Amino acid sequence: MKPLSERSFFFDAGEGHSLHVALFGNPGGVPVVFLHGGPGSGCNPGQRALFDPDRHFVVFVDQRGAGKSLPPRSRHANTTAHLIRDLEALRQDLTLPRWLVVGGSWGTTLGLAYAQAHPAACLGLALRAVFLGTRAELEAAFVTRLSTFYPDLFAALLARAGQQAPLEAIWRQILDPDPQVHRSAAFLWYDIERALSELRPASTTHSLRAADAPLPATPFMEASYFLNDCYLQPGELLENAGKLAGIPGILLQSRYDLLCPPSGTAALAARWPEAELRFVEVAGHSVSEPGVTAALRQAIRDLSEV
Asked: Catalytic center at which residues (predicted)?
């Protein structure tokens, strides 16, 4: 059968949300669901390079309010529980008995939460840069490591958000309805996150944007989720790791990831015996870091043969 590399559609998730879904690869191949990061970033065609179109049948889904899903940037009825329900409804609609779950960063958060809720639906999990969705991880990344490695950006954050609880302050500014408030806050957050995402970032400073510069989408969804602890109970994903028993997994970790460092991934691996921890040396958070894409492609290939 001809690969469905160009087939896409909108899936009615209810509550006013229509999810953009793109199918890629061999309908008779190993089913895979790809979970993008952010939250809020959406899928892109370049992510197809992770998969073998002859071996895999990949479901790329833009989560609520992300990518091409409608309405854009909508935070109404948009929580982790809603996203888990969407994935399971989509799997059943596509009549896929089980699928391989692939994700990075926020995609690992959602992937773990989904697998813990629906373990029987998972062939395996290939997860890159594990984020357990905790406030402690965010404080460590955007306060401790930001101030250590990028003090100028940290100073810009404090100047904008104040000394007390700067993360909550900047997130609330991003969600402020006044464009005079949220535009500059969103661009600052975007610049900070980009610097922390790469081992050798192209820019380590915050720059002012023109009044008509298009706003990045992810800061708004991230602010909503992060203010609400990713709509998870404290430590939930680690405490419920036992629900992953029997599911094979490969945890891919860049050694010098400033956003999602090895400690979180190692903590998960210690509670999930079926998971194999693999390191990519001399690499940062982004999937575009040297060696990361190839390592993730290999992890997907290996789990496809289990």
From this structure: 105 (nucleophile), 257, 285 (proton donor)
Q: Are residues 102 and 73 in the same domain?
A: yes
Over residues 184-201, mean pLDDT: 96
Q: What is the pLDDT of residues 247-271, one digit of tens each?
A: 999 999 999 999 999 999 999 999 9
Measured CA to CA, the distance from residue 252 to residue 50 in angstroms comes to 14
Is 20 in the same domain as 169? no
* Cis? peptide before 71, omega within 30° of 0: yes
**Cβ proximity of 27 and 2 under 8 Å:** no
Q: Strands 275-280 and 249-254: what pairing?
A: parallel
Give me the phi and psi of 14, to 5 degrees please: 85, 170
User: Which tokens sit at 298?
Assistant: 């290999």
Do residues 45 and 68 lie in contact, with contact meaning Cβ atoms separated by under 8 Å?
no
Q: Rounded to two decimals, what is the model's pTM?
A: 0.96
Write out the residue range of the structural domain in which residue 69 sits. 7-134+232-304
| pLDDT (tens digit per residue) in 75-128 | 999 999 999 999 999 999 999 999 999 999 999 999 999 999 999 999 999 999
Q: Which residues are the active-site residues? A: 105, 257, 285
Phi then psi for residue 217, to 5 deg, are: -85, -35
Of 167, 197, 229, the domain-final residue: 229
pLDDT at 1 > cutoff 80: no
Which residues, other chains included, contact 46 with Cβ-Cβ below 8 Å and sequence gap of 6+?
none
